Amino acid sequence: MAVKYELIKTCAQTGARLGRLHTPHGVIDTPTFMPVGTQASVKGMSPEELKTLGAQIILSNTYHLFLRPGHELVKEAGGLHRFMNWDRPILTDSGGFQVFSLSEMRKITEEGVQFRSHINGDKLSLTPESATQVQNALGADIIMAFDECPPYPAEYEYVKQSTERTSRWAERCLKAHSRSHDQALFGIVQGGMHADLRKQSALDLTSLDFPGYAMGGLSVGEPKHFMYEMLEETIPYLPGNKPRYLMGVGSPDALIEGSIRGVDMFDCVLPTRIARNGTLMTSQGRMVVRNAKYTNDFGPMDPECSCYACRNYSRAYIRHLIKADEMFGLRLTTIHNLHFLVNLMVQVREAIREDRLGTFREEFFEKYGMADN
Ligand SMILES: CNc1nc2c(CCNCC3CCCC3)c3nc(N)[nH]c(=O)c3cc2[nH]1
What we know:
The protein is an alpha/beta fold. The protein has helices at 47-52, 62-67, 71-76, 80-84, 96-102, 128-138, 156-176, 195-206, 224-234, 252-260, 270-275, 308-312, 315-323, 327-353, 357-368; strands at 4-10, 17-23, 26-30, 32-34, 58-61, 90-93, 104-108, 113-116, 123-126, 142-144, 184-189, 213-215, 244-246, 265-267, 279-282, 285-288.
């Protein structure tokens, strides 16, 4: 088994678990937050900086790399690890979600999805087979089944048909997956906001015995309590000895709430995306450093943070760089936000080890000010 999940312990206070995910490119401590590098780069970050802030695995994406530069080129370069000089684990998403969030003119059939490139308008298609073959060529350690993420809200009947088709697609991915690359193919549970469809999807996928399972179709605009309810309706039907990945989730409160419910892996573009407009996640809650009130503030962005940006630069300096549209400003805010979430998961793992994640949740929410996150 190329990718193996080792359950270390379950938190006595909650349903959270401490684990280690062994992959051909190294070990990942779980629960883990995975920085997103959509186009084979975590925007503005070097691999060395990512390692310094503690990233153990990063994400990339089939849809984007299929369109540009093309998976054959990445394969010719020796695969994604060589191409981007990242020698730790990589996970690639299968592209289905991005087709729907990025491209126009798309058409979905039993065969797969037809769409126009958002870059040059070319007519393209992705199927369970081709999405799997692209990911095999890219060479990530963990690859995702090709699925449809139903829109939210959506009619029950639509979600039912879509979820059943996603289960048929998952079987086709398994058949197309070439095992020569030592990669692990994870299944993706769908089912919208319907407990019965979530259960059926989980049963369909676990009958195919994947090495890991993602929960998709969430973090699509639904109220957060719907997401948490769907986790509670799904996770009991997933095997305890396999990792669980909640796709597209990464606000601090959701990482804690998801971990409490037994999620092991998270990814989100939030920290890098909000960093690019000068919004920071700090121990005191969110802070917009470009705000005029920081003009003469010569203290660190977050007094409790030990990241490179907070140790060496002031709010006034970073505010100046962002106002002056200096690239270095966005690099510093990105370094901080990624370090904040990676470090949050270090604290979550510590709390699980010491059976106090429920208490940690209360303390964190109190300080972070669970207004908007
Ligand atoms: C933000 N919310 C959200 N994201 C979802 C995503 C994307 C997760 N992030 C992937 C990275 C971002 C670009 C490179 C890889 C989802 N992906 C899939 N395949 N299926 C979902 O149901 C699915 C559902 C998701 N919900």
